[in-house]
Amino acid sequence: MSNWRHKLWRKLSSFQRASYSTTSSRNNKLKLDDLRKLRPMILKRIENRAKDYPVKEIVPVAEEILIARKNLISNIAALLKVFPVLTCKFCSEVFVGKEGHLIETCRSYIRRGNNRLHEWVPGSRNDILVPVESYHLHNISQGVIRHQERFDYDRVPAILELCCQAGAIHPEEILQYSEIHDNPQISEEDIRSLPAGDLKYVGANALMAWEKVRAGVKKLLLVYPSKVCKRCKEVHVGPSGHKARLCGVFKYESWRGTHYWEKAGVNDLVPEKMVWHRRPQDPVVLVDEGRSYYGHAPAIVSLCSHTGAIVPLKYACKMKPQGLSFSFTNPVPNLET
């Protein structure tokens, strides 16, 4: 009797699975048919939306960003001739000063260990202003860049691509613009002959240009959509991300996988490179024991503060300008019995 019930139950369950599979396949076919019908309407809507760009009221904002970016690059290049910047050989740590700190925060996969001392080498402008590049689109309504087309498009700075879509740069002149304005020629003799007051003026101008660039990018992102990968921080300036399978370097990511796109912010296009900031009350070399006393600041803010420029108040919480410093004088224990 039990065998008969078992056979009946197996037949009923197989019948339910077959009916469920047929209904699900029918629903999937209906959805595909609906998408095929909606595809021409979606493409037409994208083409019509491209006619509204660039927005004339936003063009002056993009032009101000280009001017501020040009001043920022030239001022930073001038300051790097006077104030040294160091970067770690194995990780992305940066420090503004003649001697690197002794804080054990090196977590490079090459050294196969966490919390080690850094090995310092001379840095460059890219360590202060982190370069962020994206694919250059000829038209905002063009098709999605596929994996096999990734070499057919040029890579340009993301800020220039955003300003190009805003109408401040012609699409055919963006490469020439990047080559001219991204490599200023400044001699060391002219910079070192400047008095301290002029260096303070250069640092103040660099901070002002930095704030203008970030404020302008924040306004443009409200009008022109941009995407960033949640995993690898790849940036794409456009209504939809590309399909180049370049995501997947770390262990938790699938190798050569597709990007996981989300809405981009200001820190994605103009990232803040946070560094340890040495204050006047701190020792000459920052040690690992006093890491809870020291402050942090964006690399460009720390560089400009060395010139004596006034730092905006919003960075004071992280920089701890009036905070206590680590004391090396430890009390000697009493060994008398």
TrEMBL record:
Gene Ontology molecular-function annotations: RNA binding
Highest taxon, organism lineage: Eukaryota
Domain APO: 87-172, 228-313
Short name of one Pfam family: APO_RNA-bind
Family matches, as InterPro entries: APO_dom
Family: Belongs to the APO family.
Protein name (record): APO domain
